Amino acid sequence: MIFTLTMNPCLDRYIYIDELKPDDTIRAKKLVDYPAGKGIDVSRVIKELGGVSVAVSLLGGHNGRRIEEMLDEEGVIYSSVRIGHETRMNIILEEKTQYRMSMPGEKVKKEKLQKVFEILHSLIRKKDTIVISGSLPKGVDPNYYTGLIFSLKQWGATVFFDADGENLKSGLDAEPYCIKPNTHELSRLLNKEVDEKNKFEIVKYAKETLEKYKLNEILVSMGKYGSVYVNWDEAYYSYPVELKVKSAVGAGDSFLAGYVLKYEEDKLEAFRLANAAGNAAVLTPGTELCKKKDVLSLLPKIKIEKL
């Protein structure tokens, strides 16, 4: 079984307008809400691609209930840790350009953080897969991820970890199975500039990271320049596909979902599916994720090279 964990989810509210004018009444043409948070997005893509997962997250208030309703509508299975305050909301004004206002979240009580451990312990079985993605709530020490990943491994789970900055560094101390940084996140982890166009340099740094943190695998997304997959024995590069980009939001989560869905069957085909899903995500507007029909149409176009 696949589980995802989102510790800091949010509700993305897109407001579409013609033009933003100061000191004038702006009439919205359309308002669209999306459930957001990296782990939630991974579960949504797994569902879209025909798989099954359980999305575990901290949710509260009206926004939390709205996220649950939307997950119900999409057929995504979820298990919520209810918190006593409102789940944060991001406001995105969409005209010719995009204005994104990210609202701060509230601090989560210690007993709710402990509840996450308890729920996962009751759900996780040996050989299950869990994807831990995104940031932590305000005020939570990054070492929370260290303890969580260590516990999940003790319970027999395979842990995929997708985070940034100090959260990523702390989680790596517990030696997860696989991480999926983009080139910017890899640069911050290594504290050195990484050329996002240079697949050989990225593979070199990926191997160093693999060895340093005793990972089994590492996936590095390179944006419009493709991606690489590295394990202890092999390295592969996937070429980019030329597409008209509507929005790159959610491409990394779609990529990871595609890989996790198939990695136990065939890692190379999982890497192919990951790239098809990641590329398909840029064909959808806003924070919409990949569509299965686009993924299937792109699969034959994914060119993979062994390095």
Automatic annotation (TrEMBL):
UniProt entry keywords in alphabetical sequence: ATP-binding, Kinase, Nucleotide-binding, Transferase
CC terms in the record's Gene Ontology section: cytosol
Domain of life: Bacteria
Residue ranges occupied by any Carbohydrate kinase PfkB domain in the UniProt entry: 8-291
InterPro entries membership: PfkB_dom, Ribokinase-like, Tagatose/fructose_Pkinase
GO MF annotations, alphabetized: ATP binding; phosphofructokinase activity
GO terms classed as biological process: carbohydrate catabolic process; small molecule metabolic process
Family: Belongs to the carbohydrate kinase PfkB family.
Stated name of the protein: 6-phosphofructokinase 2
Species, as recorded: Marinitoga hydrogenitolerans (strain DSM 16785 / JCM 12826 / AT1271)
Native organism taxonomy: Bacteria, Thermotogati, Thermotogota, Thermotogae, Petrotogales
